[in-house]
Each structure stands twice: as structure tokens, then as C-alpha cells.
Amino acid sequence: EVGILAKSYIDQGRLIPDDIMTRLMLNELKGLDRYNWLLDGFPRTVAQAEALDKECQIDTVIDLDVPFETIKCRLTARWIHPASGRVYNLEFSPPKVQGIDDITGEPLVQRDDDKPETVTKRLQAYDAQTKPVLQYYREKGLLKSFSGTETNKIWPHIYAFLQTKLPDVSQKDAATPR
Fold this sequence. Notes:
The chain is built from seven helices and four strands. The chain has a domain at 1-44. The strands form two sheets. The chain has a two-stranded parallel sheet with strand order 1-4. A two-stranded antiparallel ribbon has the order 2-3. The chain is mainly α. Helices cover 47% and strands 10% of the residues. α1 (2-11) packs across α2 (18-29), α2 runs parallel beside α3 (46-55) and α4 packs across α5. It starts with a helix and ends with a helix. One of its GO terms (molecular function) is AMP kinase activity. This is Adenylate kinase 3.
């Protein structure tokens, strides 16, 4: 129910309100206190960060400093095959025939939240709301920033940093989302 509500905000190109996002995330984190975990994209506001801090001890916050133009180009180049969930990117993983799924020959679609005008709105909202979060964690001494435009160039630095925090995690384990 909360996920459906969250999707309605995403489809409109809006960020999910703090109370909804916090409920979603804290519910997912219940029972993970015995494990190391990495969150991607949460918290995005100071209110979310404060709510998270009340429930969990945060050891490290990683900031991927990627120019908005790079993000916009990648997202707006993303197309999907709805039936299978296959994802194509016109820049680095295009379909063999533009606009057509390689396997079924069916048309590809662009999600509403990947359309240029929606991406621009989301990036502007992200910028306004997230800079204070970075400052919040910077002041706590928990923030580590990595700058770049290419995953294969940024990832080795992030992985080396994570090895200092979690030396027993293998590269294979680190690359497997859970």
C-alpha cells in the first residue's frame, strides 16, 4: 500500500514525501541489525537522515558526485521492454533495432520518470533537498565523496574505501545487491 503511494509520486516526477519514504525504509531495515548493509538513495532529506539516525547507527555515508548532465543523459537514454523488464540504454547498451526489443521484436517504452522533463524536475528537487543531507553527515565526520562520470573509474576507489570498512567482504559479494 505504501509502495503504491510512493509510485504515484515517482510517476509525477516528484520525490516521495519524507514520512512515506521513511516508513518504507525503516520497515525494510528491521531485523538487519546483525548485518552490514548499504543504502542507495536514502536518506535524501535531513528529516529522513534524522529518522534513520534514531533507529540505526550509521558508520559511513558515500557521496557519488556525478554531474547532473551525465545523470540526465543516462536516464533519458534508458528504454525498457515492459513485459520482460529488459533495460536498454541508447548510449552503452542499445537494442539492435532502435525502439525494438532484441528478443521479442516488441516496442520498447520510456518510463515516465525517465523522460527529460521529469528527470530535470527530479534532479532539481534532489539538488535542493540533498545538499543539506551531505552537510549533515559531513559535520558528523561520516561523509566520503567520490567524483567522476564513469562507473568503471569510480567503483575501484569506492571498493578500496569499503575494504577499509569491511575488509572481509569479497568483490563478488560487494557487487551483489540484496
